[in-house]
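Researcher: Predict the fold of KaiC domain-containing protein.
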Amino acid sequence: MARYYELKELETKAPKLFGIPTGTKLDDMFYRIEREGDRYVRKPLGGIPHLAVMNITGVPDTGKSVFAEQFAVTQANNGYRVLFVTVESPANFLYTALKQKAEAMGADFSRVEENIVVIDAAESDELRENVRALIDTMAYAIREKKTSNVIIDSITGLYEHKEVMARQIVRQVFNFLKKFRQTGILVSQKRSAQASESAEAAGGLAVAHIVDGTIVLDKKLIETRWDVNLYGLPLGEVLRTVRIDGCRLTAHDSKTWVFEITETGLVNIISPLSDYVESKIR
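Model: Structure tokens for KaiC domain-containing protein follow.
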């Protein structure tokens, strides 16, 4: 029998709109519009939308895992429990990376350790190849540890060599995170042959349409005299950019921003690309 709701019946079930901090300047790029008197005012959300499932995509070495780890440390240090599903890097290597992030961010690592739960799918063929088994394990961990955030790095690692199943697997994970009321970060590996400005290349066409929003990380090698003049960087340097490609839960900045990965391994968003270029040609 088909189910339906009167719209007013959904009021008590509708999630509150507020931000979940990432520890980066992206927190100021999501916003909502509120009416104050006779005018509308833009107010930063302070993070990605609560209960959003965000796709973080980009070609290799653009900073996707750095962003995910920074988000995990930020949330754990704030006292919120995070379930981190590592599909690419074994859990002991993830420990080292998170400890370094915590030190660089000035976070209390004992607090971070206490609040991050790890599922190692990198060293488990069953969890990596059987999405049902992984979801059952995640459900157990969420119930037992009472997490509020889930990171999967990477979701594309769950459908290696079977991209025809990408949409089906992402849909299962998306529905699961919604059912268990988790704010989700899904890291996606984009194929380098695809246009860098597109988000669809991660996991095939239409995957980006399943999630609530996509953040695209990109990099450009400075390799011509034109690049040197335009970006003010020497030959061989790398210019990194980040863009919120879409988010259906709230308004967001649509500009492309320049960012760097600092010596201590943190994402530091600098300025809009247009401002950055203008400052270099003055």
